[in-house]
């Protein structure tokens, strides 16, 4: 069968398999899946197991290992703003190609909640997720991406299934491919062949292991369309995960390379410990070659070879970078991460290249240095989540979401909706509709800006509270030293310390006043915004091992104080100071 006919059959199977029989049905019992020797797949498919690994079976006893990536969000319709690419400065290597890999804004979210996963996946993933209160404003939404690049062995195992999935009678034989070449990333394949791999593998999984796939809205009917499937990752999914995702701080997330922390050392490890690339000066390619998966160290999310080794295809067609966003024309296909022939100076997490889909002779473009890893996706709007999505959509662009001073029932944007619905002049209705959409768009933009400002306020207030404690420690030390000077009869030193104490009290009172001003500012945001941003701030601060623990305590107290200030419209400085100092005391 030709590649074209095989690909068409595989893509058709992906669509048909939404209604495929489950493994319990008689057809599947009559065609058992061949298995390799127990345990051999771990050596070849997961050479470096890590806590939190999840996997899907491969034909012939193999496994495809994935890592979870989460985003704290209010649900499926929410997302997080992230920055991609790199802000090159003039004269820096890469500056003249800023239109390819330059700094730009994008948004990221996951499609699966913890409840959407099979029990064994829930057990593996749950320990790495942030602890959230039941019914809280935010929940971890996840996507899954390959821990390693797809290997030649895995590619062959999957593609051998295509004939039987297209209607063949016998299960395909499992040929041993356990040599070192089988562990190399699969390269020299076209974008279309990578997609055909995803289509065949999805069809095979849905036929034999549907119960292991994540389902957006688990428990819903199969025809709702929420069953997970294999695909190439999107560019933002790939880059967010490659940078370290939610496992790193916001500052680290925007670095040129992901953090390469070495236990017991202050400095980062060399890139050569984490990536396969050309380490010969001048980038001649000498001594550079493709390496088996898992030979280097992983990035902070547990992903291997996101930089170097085989470059990796992603889902989207290429777009140029223009004014901090993607430009509106489409080109070839996008390749990320660089390859083993690249020199260290050209490698960075936001690196991207454009390649044509077809060679000069019209055949599918294949590169010696380009492979791929896969992701697990699902429909963005499965019918089982329509109501949830609709309710979230209704809240977008509402002025009541910006302040507690506007009652939801009296929201002017709702009144405008009613006026438009009641309008009898079609022309006037269309004009009002345009105004309404622009108003909602701007309200949503303001809401995002206010959410970010609320998060910054919580962090700033926590730092002010920490400053209050530090001022009080210094003041106490001065008072003790003054008492010693007075006991020794050193009046000159006592007067000097007295002046310092007066300045210290003024500084302490000033810091408390700033803290109370922050409380007043906090009431300008809705309680829902404060609570959601508090959850995000806690997650960020928890990554800072020493100061972070203290600041989480401060932030927790600040959010409580904001609630009290919202109710009382005042705060007593002496009470605030007492509670701030009490929160600093070590817990038993």
UniProtKB/TrEMBL annotation:
<dbReference type="GO" id="GO:0120147">
    <property type="term" value="F:formylglycine-generating oxidase activity"/>
</dbReference>
<feature type="region of interest" description="Disordered">
    <location>
        <begin position="27"/>
        <end position="52"/>
    </location>
</feature>
<keyword id="KW-0175">Coiled coil</keyword>
<dbReference type="InterPro" id="IPR051043">
    <property type="entry name" value="Sulfatase_Mod_Factor_Kinase"/>
</dbReference>
<feature type="coiled-coil region">
    <location>
        <begin position="436"/>
        <end position="488"/>
    </location>
</feature>
<dbReference type="InterPro" id="IPR005532">
    <property type="entry name" value="SUMF_dom"/>
</dbReference>
<feature type="domain" description="Sulfatase-modifying factor enzyme-like">
    <location>
        <begin position="143"/>
        <end position="375"/>
    </location>
</feature>
<dbReference type="Pfam" id="PF03781">
    <property type="entry name" value="FGE-sulfatase"/>
</dbReference>
<dbReference type="InterPro" id="IPR016187">
    <property type="entry name" value="CTDL_fold"/>
</dbReference>
<keyword id="KW-0732">Signal</keyword>
<feature type="signal peptide">
    <location>
        <begin position="1"/>
        <end position="26"/>
    </location>
</feature>
<dbReference type="InterPro" id="IPR042095">
    <property type="entry name" value="SUMF_sf"/>
</dbReference>
<protein>
    <submittedName>
        <fullName>Formylglycine-generating enzyme, required for sulfatase activity, contains SUMF1/FGE domain</fullName>
    </submittedName>
</protein>
């Amino acid at each position: 069968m030709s590649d074209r006919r095989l690909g068409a059959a595989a893509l058709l199977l992906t669509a048909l398999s939404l209604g495929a029989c489950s493994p319990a049905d008689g057809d599947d019992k009559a065609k058992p899946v061949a298995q390799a020797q127990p345990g051999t797949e771990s050596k070849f498919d997961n050479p470096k197991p890590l806590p939190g690994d999840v996997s899907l079976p491969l034909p012939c006893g193999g496994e495809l290992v994935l890592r979870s990536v989460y985003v704290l969000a209010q649900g499926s319709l929410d997302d997080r703003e992230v920055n991609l690419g790199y802000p090159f400065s003039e004269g820096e290597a890469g500056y003249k190609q800023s239109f390819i890999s330059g700094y730009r804004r994008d948004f990221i979210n996951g499609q699966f909640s913890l409840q959407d996963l099979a029990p064994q996946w829930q057990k593996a993933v749950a320990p790495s997720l942030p602890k959230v209160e039941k019914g809280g404003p935010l929940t971890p939404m996840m996507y899954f991406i390959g821990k390693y690049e797809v290997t030649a062995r895995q590619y062959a195992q999957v593609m051998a299934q295509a004939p039987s999935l297209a209607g063949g009678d016998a299960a395909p034989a499992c040929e041993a491919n356990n040599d070192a070449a089988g562990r190399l990333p699969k390269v020299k394949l076209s974008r279309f062949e990578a997609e055909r791999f995803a289509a065949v593998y999805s069809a095979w999984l849905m036929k034999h292991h549907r119960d292991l796939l994540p389902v957006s809205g688990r428990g819903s009917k199969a025809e709702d369309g929420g069953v997970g499937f294999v695909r190439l990752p999107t560019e933002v999914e790939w880059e967010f995960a490659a940078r370290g995702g939610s496992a790193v701080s916001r500052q680290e997330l925007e670095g040129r390379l992901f953090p390469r922390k070495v236990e017991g050392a202050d400095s980062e490890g060399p890139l050569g410990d984490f990536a396969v690339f050309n380490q010969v000066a001048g980038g001649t390619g000498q001594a550079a070659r493709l390496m088996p998966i898992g030979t280097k160290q992983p990035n902070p999310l547990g992903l291997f070879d996101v930089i170097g080794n085989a470059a990796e295809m992603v889902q989207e067609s290429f777009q140029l970078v223009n004014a901090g966003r993607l430009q509106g024309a489409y080109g070839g296909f996008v390749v990320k991460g660089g390859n083993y022939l690249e020199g260290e100076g050209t490698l960075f997490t936001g690196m991207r290249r454009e390649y044509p889909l077809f060679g000069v002779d019209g055949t599918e473009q294949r590169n010696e240095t380009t492979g791929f890893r896969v992701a697990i996706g699902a429909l963005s709007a499965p019918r089982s989540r329509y109501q949830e999505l609709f309710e979230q959509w209704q809240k977008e662009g509402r002025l009541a979401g910006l302040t507690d001073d506007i009652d939801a029932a009296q929201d002017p944007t709702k009144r405008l909706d009613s006026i438009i619905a009641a309008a009898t002049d079609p022309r006037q209705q269309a004009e009002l509709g345009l105004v309404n959409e622009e108003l909602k768009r701007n309200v949503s933009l303001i809401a995002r800006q206010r959410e970010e400002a609320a998060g910054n306020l919580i962090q700033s207030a926590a730092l002010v509270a920490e400053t209050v404690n530090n001022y009080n420690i210094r003041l106490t030390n001065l008072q003790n030293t003054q008492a010693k000077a007075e006991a020794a009869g050193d009046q000159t030193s006592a007067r000097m310390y007295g002046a310092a104490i007066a300045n210290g009290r003024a500084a302490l009172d000033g810091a408390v006043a700033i803290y109370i001003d922050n409380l007043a500012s906090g009431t300008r945001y809705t309680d829902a915004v404060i609570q959601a941003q508090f959850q995000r701030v806690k997650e960020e601060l928890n990554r800072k091992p020493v100061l972070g623990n203290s600041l989480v305590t401060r932030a927790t107290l600040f959010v409580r104080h904001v609630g009290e200030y919202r109710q009382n419209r005042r705060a007593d400085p002496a009470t605030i100071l007492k509670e701030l100092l009490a929160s600093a005391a070590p817990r038993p």
